[in-house]
Specification:
2 helices, three-stranded antiparallel beta sheet, 46% helix, 91 residues, Phage_gp49_66, alpha+beta
Length: 91
């Protein structure tokens, strides 16, 4: 029987096997790109209004949390699609 849930371990594994790039632009914006093992890339940005208040570590943390949330949605959609295909094929 096919699994019917996305797990934290699944998301953690995707993140641990991803290529993560973090950069600062305009002295106050963090851009994080995550290239997943299958080549799909998710990008997020976080910034401060004033460069004096900018903290790259906070920006990175915020971006990675957003990317993980997107992964939950993407993996949930993929699983729902797989379950539908399995049901339709009578598996």
């Amino acid at each position: 029987m096919m699994k019917n849930q996305v797990t934290k371990e699944q998301i953690d594994k995707l993140m641990s096997n991803a290529e993560i790039n973090v950069e600062t632009v305009h002295s106050k914006v963090t851009i994080v790109t995550v290239k997943l093992p299958n080549g799909f890339v998710i990008t997020e940005a976080s910034g401060a209004v004033d460069a004096a208040n900018y903290n790259a570590e906070i920006g990175k943390k915020v971006c990675l949390e957003r990317i993980q949330n997107k992964l939950w949605e993407l993996e949930g959609y993929a699983l729902a699609n797989d379950l539908l295909k399995s049901k339709e094929s009578g598996e």
